[in-house]
Specification:
2 copies of one chain form a homodimer. By secondary structure, the first copy, chain A, is mostly helical. Chain A has a domain of 143 residues: Tetracycline Repressor, domain 2. The first copy, chain A, contains 9 helices and no strands. The longest helix of chain A is centred in the N-terminal third of the chain and has 34 residues. Chain A is globular, with a radius of gyration of 19 Å. The N and C termini of chain A lie far apart (79 Å). The N terminus of chain A is likely disordered. At the A-B interface, helix 5, helix 7, helix 8 and helix 9 of A face helix 5, helix 7, helix 8 and helix 9 of B.
């Protein structure tokens, strides 16, 4: 019984920690979007998230890490959805479905994600953090693909597939953001979903174009 | 006749400039490999390449740019070879042939390229330069693909294909370098060529894996 109470406690504590982490990264993103990453301090982020400065450092080691964490959250969701897809689905179909499910989630999450992308394109100080996040995402996705196929994570296929799908998503998101920068409002999410779908379908079809007849 | 002489002069001048540029980046790479990028100065690079300091800045704006230029040279060669492939070849076959042709070129060029990759993995100060080079390479390759297909460079296919092929090459080179770091000598170039071939064949085949039978 004590064991069970402990498990309950620890589950509740875990959920509370996840909620605090989300609150901190949302505060960091909000402030950075408003004032620019350079001008925001860790103290301001802690105040905005209504936590002590010491608590901030339990979750993130820098303001840059906190801002970029929203990107990581999107990829963590994608990997969790991919792991939950039925094993009867081919790998790329499972990946496409997982992306579409994540994109259909609450509007707030998506907007945060897109604002973070906007910020990162503008802030050179975020580049090293972003690279670290991208590398970790690729690795985590490669591990999920290897597990699904009962392959060794060192085999070339899982890494090739993970890196390529992440690249395709980056190309689609960047095109969409370029258009977003040109217009006053974000272009439609429907268009974004359609382009993600199209890009993964292209990959699955072999990404090739025939040569010309002689 | 004067026009023709001028063209000859300018062709000779152009070749001389290219040779100087290659000498400068090779000097930068050699010194950076020996002492670490941080410890090398622009003055030392100019001395090693036997040019005046002022001349250095006609070719590169920083030591980081000079070191990373070797990577750009590899991709420029790849794009030139790709442009030279017969239009009757499908896009991915032309890309694969172009990569294999570049990799079969003189051993010195390949070693320099691989040493630069080694350096870049170790030197955080090179990361922004490397990102700029990668983005420019992707864009140049996308333009070459669009031209080959008489497509608009803004269409999604050329960018998707360029970014994905570049990513596949990055995965293969990184795996090979990981093994190179573990051993005392560089692993065989034959193995590298085979893995490049395998990766592009995977892409052309649709990069998918079937689901399990129920």
């Amino acid at each position: 019984m004590i064991l069970r109470e402990d498990a309950g406690m620890s589950g509740r504590r875990e959920r509370k920690k996840l909620a605090t982490r989300a609150a901190v990264r949302e505060a960091a993103l909000r402030l950075a979007a408003r004032h620019g990453v350079e001008k925001v301090t860790v103290e301001q982020i802690a105040a905005e998230a209504d936590i002590a400065l010491r608590t901030f450092f339990n979750y993130f080691s820098s303001k840059e890490e906190a801002v970029v964490a929203t990107l990581a959250a999107g990829a963590e969701e994608l990997i969790a959805e991919f792991r939950a897809r039925p094993r009867t689905e081919p790998v790329l179909r499972a990946l496409r479905e997982a992306v579409l499910v994540v994109m259909a989630h609450g509007d707030a999450g998506r907007r945060d994600h897109l604002e973070a992308l906007h910020l990162i394109r503008r802030a050179p100080s975020l580049v090293p953090q972003q690279l670290a996040v991208l590398a970790a995402q690729e690795k985590a996705l490669a591990e999920a693909i290897a597990e699904r196929l009962d392959q060794d994570a060192d085999d070339i296929y899982p890494m090739l597939c993970a890196a390529t799908v992440m690249t395709a998503l980056r190309v689609v998101f960047n095109r969409w953001l370029d258009r977003a920068v040109e217009s006053t409002d974000l272009p439609s999410m429907t268009a974004l979903r359609e382009e993600v779908d199209e890009a993964i379908t292209e990959l699955a079809a072999g990404l090739d174009r025939p040569g010309r007849a002689r």
